[in-house]
Design brief:
Layout: H1 3-42, H2 44-49, E1 53-54, E2 59-60, H3 63-94, H4 97-112, H5 115-134, H6 141-165, H7 169-177, H8 182-211, H9 214-219, H10 237-244, H11 250-286
Antiparallel strand pairs: 1-2
Helix pairs in contact: 1-11, 3-6, 3-8, 4-6, 5-6, 6-8, 7-8, 8-11, 10-11
């Protein structure tokens, strides 16, 4: 490759990166421009901590939906993270080659299934099962979290597996040479060294769970309330936008964009917290403390 070609490639990649940043800034700017009038009209604290969402009565409080989104996300992560990490460890360190060749395509297929298919599965199979076993309508935070668990499993498994495989082979060989068993090596050497990548996998899975809309709409119940238990119906922020955007006008329209602002801020807070622990662990490992 000539210097001229290298120059073109370098500038092309630079322009692509800049364009991506510009697109993100434009999207964020548009959301804030459309949503801020509702926040100014209703009041920021009242909008965030208001318990009632009733556009017909000029009530725009999203606190119940914030609780619903956080509850669904945390519950799905509670289910998905242990399963994903155990599966990733099995694929990276224990499973024979022929089994890996079978399991990996299956897991990747789960990532490619449209969310509406997961939603239909939950609506037809999972909701009636929950209704029979736990009572109520079957539409609940718990039902939505189970669907999201299956949806985020492939993301966390794939990235965690890559993180485990990226640990230098010398770490494993040194541990085994010192007399550690295979499981002790995985537990005390390989897994701690891969934690920064594993945290990244969890962050991406969390982002998928927070942003999922269609499957959650179909199984969560979409009731604007603070749930008394995990078996109560809830409404997520994303569901609120999708359900009402088609007919919203005036301040109601702006309030839905303000809901998007709240969702954006909430995701940013979660990502900052997760990245803090990610880089803190990475620095600790880099300093030689496993």
């Amino acid at each position: 490759m000539t210097k001229y070609e290298e120059f073109l490639v370098e500038k092309g990649l630079f322009l692509t990166a800049i364009l991506s940043i510009i697109v993100i800034v434009l999207i964020i700017g548009f959301i804030f421009r459309e949503g801020l009038p509702a926040i100014d009209y209703y009041g920021f604290l009242q909008f965030i901590f208001g318990m009632d969402w009733s556009p017909s009565d000029d009530q725009y409080g999203v606190f119940t939906m914030i609780i619903g989104s956080i509850g669904i996300t945390l519950l799905s992560l509670l289910f998905a993270v242990p399963l994903s990490l155990l599966c990733a460890i099995f694929l990276a360190e224990i499973a024979p080659h022929f089994m890996t060749r079978i399991l990996k395509p299956v897991i990747e297929t789960l990532a490619g299934i449209p969310s509406v298919v997961y939603g239909f599965f939950g609506l037809i199979i999972l909701v009636p099962f929950m209704r029979e076993q736990f009572g109520g309508t079957g539409f609940s935070m718990f039902t939505a979290s189970i669907i999201l668990t299956v949806m985020i499993l492939p993301t966390i498994i794939s990235i965690s597996e890559d993180a485990l495989k990226s640990v230098p082979q010398e770490y494993k060989e040194a541990s085994l040479a010192l007399g550690a068993t295979h499981w002790q090596t995985i537990k005390n050497v390989i897994f701690p060294a891969a934690i920064p990548g594993i945290i990244t996998a969890i962050i991406l899975g969390m982002g998928r769970a927070v942003g999922e809309t269609l499957a959650v709409i179909m199984v969560a119940g979409n009731v604007t309330q603070i749930p008394n238990s995990i078996f109560d119906p809830v409404r997520a922020l994303t569901s609120n936008i999708a359900l009402e955007m088609g007919y919203a006008t005036g301040i109601h329209y702006n309030a839905l964009f303000a809901t998007g602002i709240v969702l954006f801020i909430m995701i940013m807070i979660l990502l900052v917290i997760a990245n803090y622990f990610h880089y803190k662990k990475k620095v600790t490992i880099g300093g030689g403390y496993l």
